Amino acid sequence: MTGAGFILAINLFMAGLFAASFGIIVLYDKRRQAARWFALGYAVGMSTILFEFVIATLDASTFMSLAAFGSFLVALAILNVGIARNYSVPVPWVAMSIIIPIALVVCAFTLEMPRQSFVRMLAYQSPYFIMQAMAAGLVAQARTRKPLDNLLLVLLAASALQFLSKPFLFGAFGGAGETPDLYITTSYAMFSQSMGTVFAMAIALMLLVILVRDVLFDADERSQTDSLSGLLNRGGFEVHAEKMLHDADRHGMPVSLVIADLDHFKSINDNFGHSAGDIVIVSFSTFLRSTMEPHHLAGRVGGEEFAVLLTGANLVSARLFAENARSAFGALSIEGLPPVKRVTASIGVAERGTGETIRELMGRADEALYIAKRSGRDCVKIAPRPGRRWNDEHGTAVSLG
What we know:
alpha+beta, single chain, 5 strands, 12 helices
């Protein structure tokens, strides 16, 4: 076996390995549409390598040459679909559907040209360059990119350029052989296949790492999310809240916490069923999202208990937020309950003291909440700063004694 033939064999094995790897991700998480397309793309890429083996050993016809050319172009297009799906950008269906047939027609005509022709090689490699450059453009369109995504962008751009460089370099390697079956024996084939292998493996590995990163991130998010409300659960809320407190310290911003507990929630379950109780939870969660600013944080921290961390809010503005939320939600009619039935909430509010942890802050807000519950419910109570006495000034805070 020639050196180029050995590289082709490696390419076939690696393409199969990556197709299987992306397939495994699909089995683990069926929502990963990108992984499906990547698996299909590398599977189609395997057919390109098989066509090149057939050309070198059995059949060097124009049809087989077009099949090898077209299958690789289609494989690149399929990968583009996967990249677009992964980064939630529009799939360039129209552009790709125009490029592929035109490239096949041009390739069919240029195959009759001398194999050492620069024009022939340029016409052959340019569609690959366009497809790979398109992939880089799709990553560039992503709304947010992390370091790995930027590295993928660089790899795709470099891969596109290596396709474009081949017409300018193949002469330096002695050409592509006098006939298609001799291609695999040339130094240019060794160079071209080696470069293709390096970029194909690097891109595949990067795509695989990015997918695994996203799968792990989503798994972590799901472990921190309450499945019913869609808000963070208590553990997730505390983790994210500590990070927000750290950021608030760095910027010298005030932080306040609002904790709300739905009144008489057990009676809703007892009188109207647990499905109605679930609807109330979802309704309150949806309501909280509609009242929050993007820099706020909300979580379901108990059965019918919710917390909202307000960065940049002092006690006065936090109390105003709580009062508005209490009165607005109490006026809502909720699906599944009688039209006259209203659900109210008792709320405790606390402003963070210097160096106070989220658990300490939650503890003080909880104390204010319990006082609100004992004071007749459907009201807001605020906690004094750490170390100060609880009192009943203007009905906002109540003595614990």
